[in-house]
Amino acid sequence: MANIAVQRIKREFKEVVRSEEVAKCAIKVELVNDNYTELKGEISGPPDTPYEGGNFVLEIKVPETYPFNPPKVKFMTKIWHPNISSVTGAICLDILKDQWAAAMTLRTVLLSLQALLSAAEPDDPQDAVVARQFKENPDIFWLTAKHWSHAYAGAPKSYPEFDAKIKRLVDIGVDEHRARVALSSYNWDLEKATESIFS
Amino acid sequence: MACYYDEHNCKPLAYGEQPDELLHLARLLLDTGVGIELQIEFERLFPGERGKPPASKAAISKLKTVKSFSEGEKCPICLKEYEEGEVVKQLPCCHKFHFSCVLPWLGKTNTCPVCRHELDTDDQDYEEYKRQKLQLGNYSQVDNTPDFHREDLGLNSGHCHSRKWSFSGLP
């Protein structure tokens, strides 16, 4: 990897480790390999959001041309959010694309992602199903996102009715994650979700 | 009074020259703001497809060379502290960088890596787009031009020093 990219990541690494957000356990970065091309990020779910109490792991790949091009970031922890794919974890955020600027750092990227969890942009969605639910059924969206945070990110338990519905499908041999996706996508309508799985 | 030709962004026909009707039609459409709307729609459909063009060679060669003077000051691109009295490049928005750090960035895009202040480009289409966007903005917005834009327009004396952000649109 180009020297400037490695040197920068090394300096940034120190910056993040020393930052007050790390002290408050809001963000975290770890090295995945020795040549600084791959890192593991972590952000905590912001307060007053359905992600509160959850811990979200991110895969960060640093391109050779960093910091002139943005790092490639995606969610490794499954999450229910209009701007993040519930299937692949891909993120729709302008600063990770054409709005990247060379003075941005790993710290500002992680803080921007945390801000994205607080303020979704449903009109510029990555996951169309989630975005539609966010706009049309905000209450169900909130409960669903909270349910996913509990299931995958270690947030506190939420709504027992959802667990009961998932169990109904699991009991008839459906994989738990598949059941969760189908129920979430059909606003927890057990009949429609079952139909979508078996059609 | 503005000259007719200036106002319509065209030149008088030379003796014997025929008007280019298609060009006039294209200009007419652009002047009515169709161009900017198409551009905005294009950006919405294909985000990131069209980044901002590189800064012009003239804009890069016009960058001020200054000495770094505050202790602990870092180049925002490589994050290395400047050495005492090191000579660095300063953008019109007053942000400073190592020349070797900011040059590859400006070769890719015309914005300041810190505040996105735009330098001029060699891309005529983009300059036209910028002009129209500004015009469109002027109809709907109050003047909230940051000070450094005013400096460009010759409205301020243009000293950077360690002045913090101040926006003229705020009370």
UniProtKB/TrEMBL annotation, chain A:
Belongs to the ubiquitin-conjugating enzyme family. PROSITE patterns: UBA, UBC_1, UBC_2. It comes from the Eukaryota. The keyword Repressor does not apply. It comes from Limulus polyphemus (Atlantic horseshoe crab). Pfam families: UQ_con. This is Ubiquitin-conjugating enzyme E2-22 kDa-like isoform X1. The keyword Nucleotide-binding applies. SMART domains: UBA, UBCc. Residues 161-199 form the UBA domain. The active site is at C92. InterPro entries: UBA (IPR015940), UBA-like_sf (IPR009060), UBC (IPR000608), UBCD4_UBA (IPR042614), UBQ-conjugating_AS (IPR023313), UBQ-conjugating_enzyme/RWD (IPR016135). Keywords: ATP-binding, Nucleotide-binding, Transferase, Ubl conjugation pathway.
Automatic annotation (TrEMBL), chain B:
Residues 75-116 form the RING-type domain. CDD domains: RING-H2_RNF181 (cd16669). Keywords: Metal-binding, Zinc, Zinc-finger. The keyword Lipid metabolism does not apply. The keyword Membrane does not apply. Signal peptide: none annotated. InterPro entries: RING_finger_E3_ligase, Znf_RING, Znf_RING/FYVE/PHD. This is E3 ubiquitin-protein ligase RNF181-like isoform X1. It comes from Limulus polyphemus (Atlantic horseshoe crab).
